[in-house]
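In this section we turn from sequence analysis to structure. A common task in structural bioinformatics is to predict how a protein folds when a small molecule is present, because the ligand can shape the pocket around it. The inputs are simple: the amino acid sequence and a SMILES string for the ligand, here pyridoxal-5'-phosphate. Study the lines below before reading on.
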Amino acid sequence: MKRVYNFNPGPATLPLEVLREAQAEFLDFDSSGMSIIEISHRSKQYERVHNQAKADILELMGLGDDYDVLFIQGGASLQFAMIPMNFATREKPGAYVLSGTFSSNAYKEAHILGVGEIAASTKDENFRRVPRQDELKINPAAAYVHICNNNTIYGTEFHYVPETNGVPLFADMSSDMLSRPWDFGRYDLIYAGVQKNLGPAGVVIVVVKKSLVAQSSETLPTMLRYDTFAKKNSLYNTPPAFSIYMVGKVAAWIKNSGGLGEMARRNSIKAKLLYDAIDSSDGFYRGHADVDSRSLMNVTFRLPNDELETKFVAEALEHNLCGVKGHRSVGGMRASIYNAMPVEGAQALADFMQAFRKANA
Ligand SMILES: *Cc1c(COP(=O)(O)O)cnc(C)c1O
C-alpha cells in the first residue's frame, strides 16, 4: 500500500486512524451483521452514531444546549441559498463581507433573491486579505452579517471575530471548523461542508442558535427550512449516514488527540514550516496572502513563472506530495494542511520547496 501526503483542498486528507477504524468495522458494524451504509437510519445502532457525533461537535466547540447541530445535504453551496431564504427580507437584508470566491457566491444567492447587500469587500486587492473591523459597514437593520472564516482558494483567514453591534453573526467555516479553539459562542449560525477538514463529502454541519431556528421562514418548502431539520433531529428524511458516521469518527479523533488546542498547536507548526519556506526564499516563492491574513489551513504561493510552476507540481508528485496545484483563479500553488495532515507532511513539503529552489533559482 502506498499513501501520499495529500494537500488537496477538498475532498481532502483524513486521519489514517479514522480510515483504518472504518475499514475494520465496515462489514459488520456494531454487531449488526451489516455495514453502516446498509443499516436503517431508524436503527438503534445508527441513532447512537448520529447523536454522539452531534454531542461531540458541540462539546469540542464549547457550546451549550442553546445551540443545535443540524446535518444537511446539498453542500455549503446550498447553505448560501438557505440562509437568505430563511432569514433575510427586503427590509432586513443579509449583509455580506466579501473576502474571496465562496463569500461572493454566498452573496450572489442573496442577491438573486433581492435580499443581499455588501458590508465590505477586498476584491479590489485580489482578496489578498480579509477586511478589517474598521472597514465593516454593517446596516443595523440587517438580518445577519455573513462572513467566510477561511478563504480556501485565496489562503486567507479571519483571525478576529467581527463585532457586529447586535446583528447576528453567520460564518461559513467549511475549511477551518474545529482547527483551533475559537469563540464559537459569538456566532449565531456556523456551517461547514465537511469534505475540507472533517470528513467525506455529502453533509454540511450547521451549528445554530435554537432561538434563530425558530425564525425559519414558514413559506418555504419543507426541505429548505432549518426548523424541519431541528424538529426531526436531522432525520426528517434519510440522512447521509456514511458521511455523518465519518464526521463522528473524526470528532472523536480530535477529542482523543487532545482537542482543539492540540489541533491549533499542530496546525501552527505546519503553517510556520511552509510560510518560513516562502519567506526565506529570497523572493523565489511569493505568498498570495498578506502576512496578517495568512490562513493556517491553505497556504497559497506563486513561483517566478508558469514553467517552474508546472515543474514544481510534477516533481512534488514524484516525492509523494500530491495536490499542490492552486485554484485557477489565483494560480500558482496551494498546500492545504488541514487537521489530518501530519507535521511530517508539511516538513516534507518545506524540504522539497527548499531543494527545488536551490535547483531552479
Ligand atoms: C469548498 C467550500 C465551499 C463549497 O462547498 P460545497 O460543499 O462544495 O458546496 C464553500 N465554502 C468554503 C469556505 C469552501 O471551502
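Residues 25-256 form a domain with the Aspartate Aminotransferase; domain 2 fold (CATH 3.40.640.10). As an exercise, try to locate the residues that line the pyridoxal-5'-phosphate site and compare them with your own expectations.
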